[in-house]
Automatic annotation (TrEMBL):
GO terms for biological process: L-tryptophan catabolic process to kynurenine. This is Cyclase. InterPro entries: KFase/CYL, KFase_sf. One of its GO terms (molecular function) is arylformamidase activity. PANTHER family: CYCLASE-LIKE PROTEIN 2 (PTHR31118), KYNURENINE FORMAMIDASE (PTHR31118:SF32). Pfam families: Cyclase.
Length: 226
């Protein structure tokens, strides 16, 4: 896609740092400078090791289902969303949102972004241990009533509330089940939705394509009408 002059581009994903918040805690990303110009090498080369569900990442059906698609299985057009809808929905710690909280979604929406404001706690224990989540009924409702929604994005650590993990696993399954009604709905977790997104026109998602990996860290870019 070409850059349009009257559009603004913002990252909706977080940069990967040495320490990242993850579901239920923090983890250290092992970033190594294996070749360095400062040490007399001819180039700079780095390696890094991290979990595929650390930082901003996308959950695909293979996360919970043996017959589910993996991140690398999807075609390129999967990752371009032209009718995103931002839903401001204030959520308290440990709360669970249901279909009644989401309300009306514009016809044709292909990406539902839930802007809860909970990202203000990123970097604290509350963000990783007391995050809100979605009820299993949301996945069922979206797939039955809004089959054009291909993905949901969340500004909290996981669709699963950490204090209600069993229900969270069930919720993941209702979104990702390849044998459910209509197509599975992918889940983008730990997004940065703190920008003014009132003019959001498109969202581009670029997952790291690694063979055999169920899901993937991703870079997400929002295209905003300036």
């Amino acid at each position: 896609m070409h850059v349009i002059e009257d559009m603004k581009y913002v990252y909706l994903s977080y940069i990967v740092e040495n320490s990242v918040p993850v579901y239920g805690g923090r983890r250290s990303v092992d970033i190594k400078n294996i070749k360095s110009l400062d040490k007399g090498d001819s180039t700079n080369i780095f390696s890094f090791e991290m979990g595929n569900h650390w930082g901003t990442h996308i959950d695909c059906p293979a996360h919970f289902f043996k017959n589910g698609l993996k991140a690398a299985d999807y075609s390129p057009e999967t990752w371009f969303f032209q009718k995103p809808f931002v839903l401001p929905l204030k959520l308290k710690e440990n709360s669970l949102a249901g279909p009644e909280d989401i309300g009306n979604i514009p016809e044709g929406t292909d990406l539902l972004l839930i802007k809860s404001g909970f990202s203000c706690f990123r970097g604290t224990e509350k963000y990783t241990h007391n995050n809100p989540g979605l009820k299993p009924e949301v996945g069922i409702w979206l797939r039955e009533r809004h089959p054009y929604v291909r993905a949901v994005g969340l500004d909290f650590i996981s669709l699963s509330a950490y204090q209600n993990r069993a229900l969270g696993r069930e919720a993941h399954r209702t979104f990702l089940d390849p044998n459910g009604v209509n197509a599975p709905i992918l889940i983008i977790e730990d997004m940065d939705l703190s920008h003014d997104l009132s003019g959001l026109e498109e969202v581009w998602v670029a997952p790291l394509r690694v063979d055999e990996m169920d899901s993937a860290p991703c870079t997400v870019i929002g295209v905003i009408k300036d």
